[in-house]
Sequence to fold (706 residues):
Amino acid sequence: MPSGGEMSTTPQAIRLRQRAATMRALARRIESFSVLDLHRAAGADTWVGPSPFACAEMLRAHRGRLLAAADDLRATSSRFERQADELDAAALAESLSGPVRVG
Amino acid sequence: MGLLAYHPERLAHLRLTMKAASAELRATRCADPAADGAMAVVGAALAELDHTSLPLVARILDSPAMSRGQLHGAHLGDLENSLVRVMAGGYGWSVQVDPLDDDVTVVTAEEARALGAILARADGRTLAQDRETLEWLATQLSAIAADPVLSREFLANFSDWAELADWLAWSHLLHSGGDPIQVDADLARVLDSVFAGLGRIAWHAVPAACVGSVAALVPDATAMNPYTVALLIERMPLDDVALASVTTELLRLYLDLPTSGSDGPWTDKDFDTGPNTADILFATLLDRPSAAAHFVRQAVGDPNLLLATAADQSLAHEVLLLGTDPAVVSSAEVAPVILHLLEALDGTGPTTIDTSLYGFDPAWHEFLGALVAPWLIEFGGVSTTWPASAPERARLLAFVTTDDAALDTLLARAETAVASIASSLQQGTASTVDVASTLGLLLQLFVGEEVRREEVRERQHQLVWGVAGLVVGSLGGTPGKLATAASRPLTAWTGAFGSPDPEDTRHDAELEMAWVLAVTAAAVTSATFHRLVDEGALNDDVPRPPSPDPASAHPDHDLLADFERWKLDNEITGTRVELILDGALLQFVNGAGAGEHLGESLG
Fold:
């Protein structure tokens, strides 16, 4: 059963699942960055003025871009998993349609 | 270059957090090409932290804060530095020069709060003439007004509006024409923008159910000058009824307002020139016909609100014409407005207007011609729409038409008057009897006016020749020779210009009136006759009804006699058709007597 990961049958599928895991791990790491919370510490409770405002805005912008990148990584991971499943399904179908061995 | 304020310990903590975040980002690796996009984002965040944010924080922490003297030199007291001033003065934060200039179109919640707090304590008189700061303030207020949250933050800290707003209004007044030497339209426009921002900010805090009262619209309104409140509400999105109510309330306050003391802020009552409270409000109403209609109906109980408030009384006239336009009000709605106004001006109403006051627009009488033009049919003798007797209505219309300028205005608007009557006929709100009655009344008024002018001419004639006779008499000589000497030029003058004769004038004018009525009666009767023939109620071999005889000295009476004879000759007398034809003819040559009689009673 390919999607359960019990019987990956092709090297390509195995490689795709490894890459999917890498993408998910990177997404998790990005989502745990302390930079994502920096805008709070850089807010008006700490400093005010044109430069502090610009700095806090920049940190908010980076936060948004990093979270979007994490989402993209998860989407890529799901795509790799799906491609691996398709490869496994094709390999299984080919093995079932081959010559019958008489025992 | 602006200023920045900071809490040193918190900023030091921020630097540590930034360094940790930078280390995290730097330690992140991924060789898979599918992660290239994400790694680019990580790299950009790292670069920004390492090359911009951390150096900024480090520079601030490693530089000495500004001393008290340096702060004074750096204009910490300026309105533009409100937030830095609040944080430094109120919370003991450190201050340094900020290498960046502020983006004046962007306002944070903290900036809105600080601006409200500092503005409430600002020196209004100085600020009111500081063009540069006012321009900055207008931009900031506009940004705050666009956001309900920012508006509430601002208002929470902006208390005691009245004096500051009154000083700003004084400057607006001064530069809009209050002082002809200091007129500055650009500065007045900047102040307009400031008031627009303040008004729109205040609007965010107005309870929906209370928009019809000044106190509910503007904080501290009761302590402000009406002119100030007018500038604030001018741009508020009030509905028509609320705008009318607030206008009425403010004009009452304006009329009751005393002149100011010597310390100011001075009000429009202190200036002889320039716009006043009413001018601002009336200009606003002119864009809102329905609001103008509500206003004139609300205010007519005190006609002084309408005609004795505006510095530019043409604005008041325009508002009245707009608010009594048949396009926006019905006859029943407009009745109290026009009747009360005319009674107030001719001195017969419960409230009168002293038109002899200094500054009262001398064109007020002329305006009345335009006011009554669309409503002539309501003045007719048989109309029952308005709550005034026929003689009262006729007297009030005569009050308008006896003034030359008013009559000229009315005649210039004849097209409006005719269109209005046509509309009433079309909508069924008036009958041909109403029209006949109005026509009769107008004709009698015009006859009376012609006679009056001839009487004036006669008195002029007597005066001039009386004086001339004295001159001749002073030269000496026998009475007979004197009489001869005086009579020759008089005879020559009379031959050239005609001797004044009011009775003759009345006769001619009444003959003309009789002609108008007779011709109209014949035309209406003829149209009715043809309709009856078409419907089969009359045979098509019956001759047409009579027309007025051009040689007649009494065209109306002769037409009536010819008509009676025509009915007998054609066996119409005593039939149902007779009633219909009588109805058509008699409303003009006899039925119009209602109007004629009224006109005569005025004579």
